[in-house]
Amino acid sequence: MNIFWFIPTHGDSRYLGTTEGARVADYDYFRQVAIAADTAGYTGVLIPTGKSCEDPWVTASSLIGATRQLRFLVALRPGLMTPTLGARMAATFDRLSGGRCLVNLVTGGDVAELEADGLFLDHAERYEASSEFIHVWREILTRSHTGEAFSYEGKHIRVKDAKLLFPPVQKPHPPVYFGGSSPAAIDLAAEQTELFLTWGEPPAAVAEKVAAVRAAAAKHGRQVRFGIRLHVIVRETEAEAWADAERLISKVDDAAVEKAQAAFSKMDSVGQRRMVELRRGKGRTRADLEISPNLWAGVGLVRGGAGTALVGSAEQVAERIREYEALGLDSFVLSGYPHLEEARRTAELLFPVLGFKGNAAEGTAAKLSGPVGEIMANNIVPAAANDRLVSAG
Q1: Cα–Cα distance for residue pair 175/192, rounded to 1 Å
Q2: Which residues, 6+ apart, have CB-to-CB distance to 26 below 8 Å?
Q3: For burial by CB atoms within 10 Å, which of 96, 151, 204, 304 has the most?
Q4: Per the database record, which ranges form the Luciferase-like domain (predicted)?
Q5: What's the pLDDT at 111?
Q6: Phi and psi of 59, rounded to 5°?
């Protein structure tokens, strides 16, 4: 199992849909979140992409030296960069980080944003271009280990004698993650990516996607891994978790919801449409928004992309994760508001229940070893969770 966290380069807050409780989105804060995720033992972090975010490659690069084991899932954007440039960026990052680069192929689904960036392809054309892009990217990186050049002429991309002089650490190239829900996305994932990432839908819907990608991959003689992108609200008790879920959206008013949903409706992303459909026509109570046991669609009231959260005690959230794992998922990209505190809280409550050791098993914990807990009066060491302190009196 791999468990990732999230660097909130678009901002962070204790409440959704308001500036109340908001955090300054700057390097110091991103660094704090990255260090928290690294020392807690997360496999890696997802760096988001888009006009509302700081640039993912610059951000991720700035955090290499602040972390030890953490891997960085960073976006490749077909149409906004060339595959040769993307290959050099990924190889450089992989070398400078000691093999900690993962790439997230993002075709984009917000037409207005894409056009503002100079990309005027429709949905089908974007997937054609993405397929050509990642094919060329993979070939350039793969051939870099033997010094070969690569030429390609397609509908959207053409390169002649493309050659990468400095290969990545990982062979043949950093793994490619990719998410999408349309038939074109499933075909692309099956043919050219290592891991298919879905947003947090109910298990039955996820099972259908997994089956579709597996079947498509089999036609190419390939196997694809699977992961899911979710928010989490993990607490010691179920009651605490649901109270904090309600608190998270307590400042959101109807006007903010209507504005956000109107913006989502203009996107041509099938995945975003599926997120909207999960809560269409429903209210804002727990009964309305709990679309599957412990799966809550409240985040999607005003947030695009991943709009669902697992809410409950550590045991309940672990049980839901195990259900997804039983479907064949091995990677869980999590986040929570605010991201600094929730990175630690999630790890401390959830990891022991899952039996997840993550990067701590690879040396991070040993490198950062020190006293566990507060040393109390007379040098009394804190008891283990299953021990009992006995008073001398």
Answers
A1: 10
A2: none
A3: 304
A4: 1-330
A5: 87
A6: -60, -50
> Considering only CA atoms, which of 81, 73, 130 is closest in space to residue 103?
73
Domain locations in the chain as residue ranges: 2-379
E strand map for the chain = 2-6, 12-13, 22-23, 44-46, 71-76, 101-105, 150-153, 158-162, 176-178, 195-199, 225-235, 290-292, 295-296, 309-313, 329-335
Q: What pTM was computed for the model?
A: 0.88
Cβ–Cβ under 8 Å, residues 104 and 177? yes
Q: Is residue 332 within 8 Å of 2, Cβ to Cβ?
A: yes
Smallest CA-to-CA distance from 161 within 84, 87, 68 is with 84
Helix axes 314-326, 339-354, angle to 10 degrees: 70
Mean pLDDT by 10 residues, the chain (393 residues): 97 91 94 97 96 95 97 96 97 98 92 89 92 97 97 96 97 95 92 94 95 96 96 98 95 75 62 57 68 92 82 98 98 97 98 88 45 62 50 36
Q: Which two tokens stand for residue 383?
A: 């008891």
> Residue holding tokens 């701590």?
360
How far from the centroid of its chain's Cα atoms is residue 245's Cα? 20
Query: Could you tell me which residues come within 8 angstroms of residue 78 by beta carbon, excluding any fewer than 6 positions away?
Result: 105, 107, 126, 129, 130, 132, 133, 134
SS (H, E, C) 196-214: EEEECCCHHHHHHHHHHHH
| Structure token pair of residue 62 | 């700035």
Both tokens of 100, joined, read: 């900690």
Q: State the Cα–Cα distance between residues 346 and 161, nearest whole angstrom.
A: 48
Tokens of 201: 């839908």
